[in-house]
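Try this one yourself first.
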């Protein structure tokens, strides 16, 4: 069984997350780090064994579009002069959105002090969407294993810490954090080494080898629906418009995944979907199967 390690800074964050872990498809450990990057770094040096690592808790928003209670799933974690990509972020953000949460992906910056005012605006101009004080050192400890950072916004540029709205916003964020745990366990259950095959629309050969076929394209496209029907003769097949629409439950146990698309779909969407799958574990490709669109679909 997959071992998921969830790290939080504070006891109240750990208690909120634990509320959602009653029925987990993976083995879960919760570890408190204490507040700040130095404490997080000390804990990161002595973490127990794990297969997947999730860091969660509260964060401060740097941009107006992130309100109290919104969830930021880090597509990258910035700490010092290092940037760690989290390719599976769209998959996890989509899972949280389907659970009814306001979730989006963005850049998470780990800092060593509370950020407000002009400094916050400066960091936002440099591309950061939210700040925390623990994720960076912990994410480094993942050492190539799947890692996710999910932060619930407490303070915002319009309502900084120690403002009259702090208590209300903290209660809102805690309620949201209670609902994050199940999505984290589904994310961890979907992590595994897998083979990803990029197949042309004539995909019978690839589909016969698949545990799951993902057809990337508009849900209203007759061509895309035909591809799903064709693939279903060989394996479970799903039509999705973007990576955030891929449900993590589909990926659990799917060790060979075929990606394909019709003529109306940009190949870059297939690239994006493959990259998201790489965030769930090592991906092997098969060069004997190629992805080619009809000539009239070439850019």
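Now uncover the answer:
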């Amino acid at each position: 069984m997959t071992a998921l390690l969830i790290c939080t800074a504070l006891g109240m964050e750990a208690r909120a997350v634990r509320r959602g872990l009653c029925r987990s498809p993976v083995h879960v450990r919760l570890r408190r780090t204490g507040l700040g990057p130095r404490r997080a770094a000390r804990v990161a040096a002595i973490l127990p064994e794990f297969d997947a690592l999730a860091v969660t808790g509260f964060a401060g928003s740097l941009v107006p579009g992130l309100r109290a209670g919104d969830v930021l799933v880090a597509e990258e974690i910035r700490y010092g002069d290092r940037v760690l990509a989290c390719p599976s972020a769209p998959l996890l953000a989509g899972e949280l959105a389907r659970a009814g949460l306001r979730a989006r992906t963005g850049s998470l910056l780990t800092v060593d002090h509370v950020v407000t005012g002009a400094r916050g605006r400066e960091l936002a101009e440099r591309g950061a969407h939210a700040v925390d004080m623990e994720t960076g050192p912990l994410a480094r400890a993942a050492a190539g294993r799947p890692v996710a950072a999910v932060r619930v916004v407490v303070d915002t540029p319009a309502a900084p810490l120690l403002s009259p709205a702090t208590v209300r916003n903290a209660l809102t964020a805690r309620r949201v954090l209670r609902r994050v745990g199940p999505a984290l366990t589904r994310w961890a259950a979907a992590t595994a080494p897998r083979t990803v095959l990029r197949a042309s629309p004539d995909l019978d050969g690839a589909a016969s080898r698949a545990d799951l076929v993902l057809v990337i394209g508009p849900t209203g496209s007759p061509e895309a629906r035909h591809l799903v029907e064709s693939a279903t003769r060989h394996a479970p097949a799903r039509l999705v418009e973007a990576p955030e629409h891929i449900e993590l439950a589909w990926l659990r146990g799917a060790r060979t995944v075929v990606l394909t698309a019709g003529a109306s779909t940009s190949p870059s969407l297939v690239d994006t979907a493959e990259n998201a799958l790489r965030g769930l574990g090592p991906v092997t490709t098969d060069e004997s199967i190629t992805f080619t669109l009809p000539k009239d679909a070439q850019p």
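Discussion: The domain at 3-190 is CATH 3.40.50.1580 (Rossmann fold). The two ends are 44 Å apart (CA to CA).
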